[in-house]
Amino acid sequence: MKKIMVIMLALGLAITAGAQAKGSLRSSYPRARVIVVSPSYYDYTPAFGYRYSPFFNRYNSAFYSPFNDPFYRSGNIETTPSQLQLKIDEIRNNYSYQISTVRHDKTVNGTERKQRIRELKHQRESAIIEAKGNYYNAERKTNS
Fold first, then answer.
1. pTM of the entire structure?
2. Is residue 110 within 8 Å of 118, Cβ to Cβ?
3. What is the block-wise mean pLDDT of the chain (144 residues), using blocks of 10 residues?
């Protein structure tokens, strides 16, 4: 019985030692093969030339976007931001500057600094909400 236990222990040690991650033992295992598949941009239709098929439909393509049509050469059209967006950007920039100055102010201790930053962030959100309310209220008054 004692010999059987010793043999089982030696066999267990041999198996666990073989399962360790070493380069020489792992090199015999086949590596996983990576296959990259990309969506086809061109339809497989009979054509007489490069994409000059009567059966080609670019709207079925995986990369077609009606907002960025590569065949329409007008350039990117950027809209000007609204007055509300400009006002919100101005509020965010002002409060960002105030928060950064408070954050780098070493004359106050850390807890007061964190409290002041929290207050400024709260004031920033309140100012944004107020700017939105003023914008939409003024818009409502002009429409009625």
1. 0.46
2. no
3. 89 78 57 64 48 51 54 59 92 96 93 96 96 89 77
